[in-house]
Amino acid sequence: MVAGVGSRLPSRCVTNDDLARTLDTSDEWIRARTGIARRYVADAGTDTSDLAAGAAERALASARLSPAGVDTVIVATTTPDRPCPATAPTVAAKLGLGPVAAFDVSAVCSGFLYALATASGLIASGAAEHVVVIGAETFSRILDPADRSTSVIFGDGAGAVVLRAGTPDEPGALGPLLLGSDGTGVDLITVPAGGPGRPDAAGADTGSAGRYFTMQGKKVFWLAVQRMGECAATVLGRAGWRVEDVDWLVSHQANHRITARLADEIGIPPERSVSNIAEVGNTAAASIPLALDHAHARRLFRPGDRLLLTAFGGGLTWGAAALTWPAIDPV
Question: pTM for this structure?
Fold first, then answer.
C-alpha cells in the first residue's frame, strides 16, 4: 500500500514566452496544442539522481519513515545519470540507505507503473518490506532545442511514493495492475542512436539528430487513448469498480488533448481528471507521481478515494492500476 508521497522540481522555470524567443512558436500556439504554460529544466549541475533523491526524501517524510526502514529503491527513468550503472544505487547512496537493493526500470512514460508493479510484487513475495518507487527525468537533455514538436512539451522533475505491506481494505491499498507492450511500435517514440547497435549519433541511418528524442505525435495520440482506455477498463473490471465509483482519474500528463479525450472515452467527468500539465509539462516517468503529489498538496484527495492510474509510453508500453488514497498529511 502507498504510505507516503513526494516530489521535486528543478529551480529553473521555462515559460512559453521564454521558448518563443528562440523558436517559431508562441504562448498561444503551445497552450492550444498541449495545454502547457511552463515547465522546469534542470541546470548543468543537477542530475536525475538529485531530483529522484529529493522526491524520495519528501516521500519518506510523508510516510514518517526513516531511511533505515527502506530496503529497496526502484527508479523509473528514461534519462539515467549515465548509461551504466543504473541510477537507483546512486539515489540510495544520496539518501544514506546503505547496502539496499536498488535498480532502474525503463518503460518511458509508463515507467512509474512498471516500477509500482515490480515493488508490489517484491512486497507480496516477502522479498521487501518498504520500497521507495521513484519516477525521475531530466528529459530536457535528450531534446533537440530546435524541434518545436518536442521541446515545448517536455519538462524535468521527479515524483516518488513509499510502498509497504497492507490489507485490501486499508486506505492506500494498491489494487489490480495491468501492464502491456507492443515492440512493433518501437520507432514511434524513440532516441534512434546511442545504444550498442547504433552507437554513433551521427551515423548514416540516423543523421546528426539521432541522439535526440523523436515522436510521431499523430499516431501516438490515438494509440495512447486506445491503449490507456482499454487497460483502464480492464483494471476497473478486475477491481470490481464501476466508472462512477472512480473519484479521480490520474493519467500520464502527455498533453491536455490526450487526457481530455481519455477521460471522455472512459466516461469520467473532466472535473474528476487530475491535471498539472499546465504547470510542469510532460515529465515522462515522473508524470503520475508528480501529479499525485501536487493533487495531494492541494488536498484534492480524501482517505479512501478511489483513483484510477494509467499511462502510455515508448516501447510501446502502457499500464493501469487501481489505488485507494491513504491517510497521509501533505509535507
Answer: 0.94
